[in-house]
Structure prediction request, 936 residues.
Amino acid sequence: MRFMKVDETYDPTRVESDWYEFWTEKGFFKADANSEKPPYTIMIPPPNVTGSLHMGHALFVTLQDLLIRWKRMQGYEALWLPGTDHAGIATQVMVERQLAKEGTDRHELGREAFIERVWEWKREHGGRIIDQLKHMGASCDWDRERFTLDEGLSKAVREAFVTLFEEDLIYRAERMVDWDPVGQTVLSDLEVDREEEPGKFWYMRYPLADGSGHIVVGTTRPETMLGDTAVAVHPDDERYASMIGKMIDLPIVGRQIPIIADTELPDPEKGTGAVKVTPAHDPNDFECGKRHDLELIQVIGFDATMIAPAPKEFVGLDRYEARKLVIKRFEELGLLEKIEDRPFAPGRSSRTGVIVEPLPMLQWFVKGKPLADPAIEAVESGQTEIIPEVWKKTYDHFMYNIRDWCISRQLWWGHQIPAWYCQECDEVIVTREDPTACTACGSDDIKRDEDVLDTWFSSALWPFSTLGWPEKTPELEKFYTTQVLETGFDILFFWVARMMMMGIHFMDEVPFEKVFLHAMVRDAEGRKMSKTSGNVIDPLHMIYGAKAEELDPAIHAELLRQYPEGVDPQGADALRFTLAIYAAQGRDVKLDIKRIEGYRAFLNKLWNGARFALMNLEDFEPAAYTTFDGDWQKGEAPFDLSAISTADKWILARLNDTIQTVESALDGFRFNEAAQELYHFVWGAFCDWYIELIKPTLYEDGEAFAAQGNATRGVLLYTLDVILRLMHPIAPYITEDIWQSLPRGEGGPESVMVSTWPKVRPELAFTDERAAMETLIELITAIRAIRGETNVKPGQTIEEVFFVTEDAAQARIIEAGAAYIQRQARVDAVRVVSREEGDALSAAATAVAAGVDIRIPLAGLIDIEEERARISKELDRVRDDIAFVSKKLGNEKFVARAPEAIVAKEREKLAAYQEELATLEKSLAEIEALAASNKA
Prediction:
């Protein structure tokens, strides 16, 4: 038998220091492609190689590790495949900043030297995010770690590109794209942030060429008027019906442009109803230009300066300097109608922060619709289920309205596009192997496309490229299709939908059976965490603690406000439990640091409960313990069912319910419900009730109590063992630490993580005993409440408690459980009486619980005058509180202007004060009745 004592106090730093190394050394995280067990596969959403652990990562690690540990315990061949993304633009920008500090740039280095410099950075720093995931307890199969620029994945990317090109699903064409003038690359939609900020809206007069008047257009970008090729109005807008077809003398430029009728671009209800059309600098204008065959006149270059054919005085100016000059010229010409302050949401590069420039460019595209249609059908038919279901509508909207995907990026770091251009005959050569000559004319004068692929292209292949595709590997056969993808809702289209499209196209099977989309982690007030807001919560600070001097006053301002001396270590388990209990479907996680402290206290409660159990199990020989993991032969339990008490039967029945509730919740991805059930069972049922209920049994001496004592010890051990297994997927470290200290026979599992998942055992239902104990607990709770309300001293024993009931079954429960009531409520005598006898009692505190009237005579229990004064003082205070809050809520301006959350808190306060008032008034009435009876 192995037995180790747990420390006297729970120290998460100590508890979490060694077990990860133990798990990895034992190979518990590894998955076997040749196993006959059913597979359960999760592909980690690969964090950027440049990344650092944030709360979004912490959430997905918690939920995915929870699932993988749970399924591993259920007997699945569980593979959680880890890896990182090469993060094209983010990584290149980071290395370019380093070069700038050294006084050089990538162009001076040259492409090959620059790429080698990035690889050096990756080798030195790229493992940081992986190490941080390990601090969270991630049980990934690290031997299978992948990187999107690995040789195998690069081969998969090239195969996918060439195949799609051969199938006419990849093409090259001129389209409108978002251009980063600082990063000098096209950006994907995900790399462009659009947040509202203050701005201006200029109304400008465009004179009609026939001299009959002018038309007023509004714009947020006056500088683009230099490239206008039309003004669009709605054909049903009567204000402009007579102008359609007329020409405009475009100010400053001197060109004439038409007034056209268009049903899509102009909205008669917005602005003036007339819209300037600049097809070369706005995506909506670009589409309008295609509808009306308008000329593309580009006046802003790739460096965001003005270029010809803009008038000479503008050429070379920065676009914002050009804006000022355009406004100045319009003022001089008397053509500036007015200027309004108006918020707008410009697209900003998420990497450089610069406002992007929409430009028409020759780029590579993937056709959307042919790939989207099968992916739509896969979700419609139920092959893939999206959870929560509300996100299916978003998925459908994206997919039904899909546009062709621009996949080329003007970067050096990434998968270089496998296309070559013949300098002799202009042939485009796309091949699996690097060509040496043109396939059309034979010329060896060929040049490779310098662009790289959008990072999302390689990410879209992640579920199968990581398993060896395009080769037919045992891993691919075993672990594809994956069982679940767990990720954030914000990349539903950018990543999830694209994996669906590519997976179905190349594998002819969906990449995952279920998609669970978690919400965003925000601060306690519901604000997005950001460095500028000063509300960032670093997971590692929560796990290991941080001194005040280690915290950035700007980034961690909110944390320092709450913890000016720094934050104590809470541990990965506490953070994981907090995130799990917050993870309600469809709701953002509003992370309150105090809750992390609260769940650390919960783990401390478990620790203390386990210590109590272990101290009482030191000399216990668990003969049947090795059968805990399997079926009990012939109904044999690891304790004597004939000797166990009502309290034992109650906890076993409650434990059965908890097993069922937790498993059902996890099956439905209701992580919060699973965590809440464990919290209430461990804290309430096990620690607060069961341990207290069995103490007399454990402490009794003599042969008469030996059988029941041993049986109770068996129940205590079994219950703690099951608790640890149920909690292990959420809180792996503390459960392993305690589980290793349990007394058990040799030959069992080496770790709780490779023990079997608990099962509901019908023979432990104990329906009658459970109901009886629930009744007794309600009665004990009511007596304790009366003690508190009447200010009976904690150590004082109540001489007699009367239970008024005409229900014979209830009476039997009370009489049989009298010992429990006496010990837990500090009562000398328990009496069951009739209604008539109960009504005859005077000056008694009363309560109703479990359908039973409880009467406690107060004479001799309390000092009447002292208690009357105390309650009166409390009544004055609570009435003042009610008046103050009522006045605030009666202020219409406060209710209308204050944030909804603040108003709700005030209403909650009022309800609590009113409830407190009712309790105090009841207590005072009982005191007055007692005083009156004493006088009589």
